[in-house]
Records
---
Amino acid sequence: MGKNRVKKAGNTNWVMTLLKGRTLLILAVLVIFFSFASPNFFAVNTGLTIAKHVALYGIMGIGMTYVIITGGIDLSVGAVAGLSGMVAGGLINEGLTIAPLGVTVYFGLPWIILISAAVGVLIGWLNGFIITRFNVAPFITTLGTMNIARGLANLRSNGATFSNIVGKEALGNTGFNYLGKSIFGIPAGVIILVLIAIVAACLLKYTPFGWHILAIGGNAKAAKLSGIKVEKNTTLVYMFSGFCSAIVGMISAAQLVAAHPATGEGWEMNAISAAVLGGTSMSGGIGSVGGTIIGAFIIGVINDGMTMCGVSEFWQKVIKGIVVIAAVIVDQFQRNLQAKMALQARNEGK
């Protein structure tokens, strides 16, 4: 009987090890599969394309990771990206017209980036304010701000595209397109992803702010009773998500050298998928930046791999939806298994 118990425990540990490493395993399987399915999968241009997409999914996914860790969700990220891109494009091409004074002000590149990022932070603050002050569910709140942001993006240009957003030397607003270029062969988006990931990972792991949001996701009531400022930290998390989305919107606009109000449609699913595939629990309290980046690679490989194989865009949505559901089911299975193992350990300790 003792041998059976040891054997059963060994099997359980093996399953847990497999579950913890599932993200890397899935990525390896996908890379191997698409390398056979598409002869050009390992081409340099393909790698650069995937890297650019992964940067967008990764940056947005990091912000989403913080939100999900607190037990929330942010459906506005794609719309915020579109709005921030439109703000940047409008400031570059048209400047800011002050009707009462009859003048148009053109800003330098640093100010354009700062204002566009501030738009994302402001919407993030609005999300956090409504959720914490009025106790509105994050799903409903961010669904509402998603529509607000998307509507504002269209109102900015009456639904038109800001094309050729390169600026003019005489106005001092050139250089925005460098956000979409490569530096020493590395896409600028990837460099920005690395910088944001390092900061976000350090904040989450080594600072009181990171410990507090993990505690909030684990049990918000207990966190509040222990002295943690739940409302303040939750609002900061949504502001960070808005900031990440705004950065993604600007990078995307720079890559296309154009800003369109529909940019970012459906990107919230990519952000959620990257976070969940990376091990962030939809129940809150668990998540990591590194895992989300690996999850972003999975989404990027799936999207670009299926496109290269000629898979219909409609089927791609179906497959990604299945992947997200499967990831949540596996996460729940892992949590249940961990709870069972902990209970067994306590019983054996008695």
Note: The chain has one domain: 54-340.
---
Amino acid sequence: MNWSRAGESSATTFGEVREQLLNYFINPAIWTQLLVGGLKIIVIVIAGRLTIKIANKALHHILMAKEKGPLKFDTRRANTFGKLIGNIISYVVNFIMILMILNLFGFRLEPLLAGAGVIGLAVGFGAQSLVKDVITGFFIIFEDQFSVGDVIQINTYKGTVEEIGLRITKIKSWTGEVYIIPNGTISQVTNFSLYNSLAVVDVSVSYEEDIDKAMEVLKTSVHNFFEKSENIVLEPEVLGVQKLGASEVILRVIAECKPNTHAPVARELNGEIKRAFKDAGIAIPYPKLITYHRGEGAEETWKKSSTN
């Protein structure tokens, strides 16, 4: 008897719950409220995205106007601050969007903001590495140690700076890898983009050649190359004999170039000098091998190798 009453009671309770759920989902007021809330959320998200886009465009136009105006900013620092301020704008707008959406669901913002302050204080004490990253990033930007577009080397990583944030720095190597480095771990930085670089080219000439003639050909060829090159700042200088090697005389040429262009300039100079030496008939030494056969004298073998 008791079991039957319990079964009837549970069946009645299940039926009531099902009826309440059915009434909830078929209630037009509920669907209207959900539809209005969804539309409000969509409007908030679209407005936030438009705000970020408009702010970034306005920031870009401001920086471009400063570059063209009478008070010009350094392009390196302008790019760095542009990306940094753009990130800050994105964070702030997204945070405001989240607060507005929570407010639509009935959450009170005052306790949330107070709780966020307490949580931020706790994170500040617990996440010391994060605080170190932020402080180091601030001083990197403030002291202008490097900027977006610079070619730098951080510890063992070398590449072009893609982004500088308060927490991390992104650099891209010439082979395409992107290194994401926490600012707090940056202990040593080499910047290759601040000052002009120096291209050093060593040219080998055979001992049989006239050194004075070779140096004159060098001076003429590097002068012609300087006339048509856009990366060389000053006319290349032929220093003279750098070293007397085992089978060659090494002549050295130096050229002051724009920042971080010494490698392509050195390659182009090597090609220009090779063509000039070929036209002038100046031989570039290469390894030679003389084989002595048993039963032959050294003088006879030398004559054979000379005739060959």
Note: The helical segments are 2-25, 28-68, 75-104, 109-126, 128-142, 211-228, 262-280, 298-307.
---
Amino acid sequence: MQPDQFNIRHLAAMAAIVDQGSVSLAARTVNLTQPAVTQGIAKLEAQLGVRLFERQPGGMAALEAAMRLKPRIDVALRLIGSNRVTAAQMRAFVALARAGSYAAAAAATGVAEPSLHRAVGDLGLAVGSRLVDRRGRGVALTRAGIALAQRLRLALAELRQGLADLADLKGEEGGRIMVGAMPLSRARLLPEAIARFRSDFPHVDISVHEGAHAELAGPLRDGEIDLMIGALRDPAMVLDLRQMPLFEDRPTILARRGHPLEKGWDADALRRFPWILPPEGTPLRQLWRTMFAELGGDLPVVPIECGSVMTIRQLLVGGDYLTLLSHDQLALELEAGLLADIGPAPGAISRTIGLTTRADWRPTRLQQQFMAAVEVAAGKMTS
């Protein structure tokens, strides 16, 4: 079952029964009839494959499945903001927000454009806001639409985690962990963590989304990825995120094998050659600035800004460029003799590598196990 297939009112009814302990009281809370609530709970139990309640003389007693699901539902309902919102409306609007046009959303979902138009229009009425403006052949989300799209994505993420919690309760190993991988983590840390985790949990899928911090922070905040691995940022810049340090990485100066500086260099020599670096604002670029502040004098020329290790590797091999990277990121090329480590970089040049999650994220047991595997892999890198 997918999280966008729930009946939102049935979820609200389930949460109300847990709170009230009674179908009749819950029915009044969610503005449904008692038979509608009873039928809704029966349908929900059939969808989930678990019993949620036990009928007793004094009312309805919540079983373990309901107690596990209830906190997730509470968060999802708060994010959705209205019991009038339907799962079809959520699916349509999230698809539209992602695709940028009704035609692209229809192609992605297999739902006809008129149905998407109707669902998004009904959603706007349900929440009392205009959600989209037409812009040529596409659409632009209004400010209210942008905020709602994020809330709905987070709500779906919370329901997805609720389904994972129930699967764990039933002894079913499965699901998918979605990881945002920043450049440093891709060479060694993440592969080792995935291999370790999959040896213990072979039926859990891993989806790796590659990108820089700026590219992954949005999907993380929206609940489209579960966690990020890579260089941590200044805490003041990510107040809504939680950062957990793993180890300190000390970058080194890299060049092609046979580079004129391979046998030795000084500060002036480092300034004579062009550099390839990630964009301004990244931790590595700031470390490079710190390194030259330590050396004194002007900054060298940076004719190429690039965050792709693959691209940097090819450029280094083919020219007299210099770069600042972790040894692990180009370990194979160094071992093969294509590149040379001409560092280490002078000064207190290091960056903290760690895990980043949403501040209010509550991981499932399997997500906790995956983070533990990352911690073990990080420990091996520093031992």
Note: The chain has a mean pLDDT of 92.
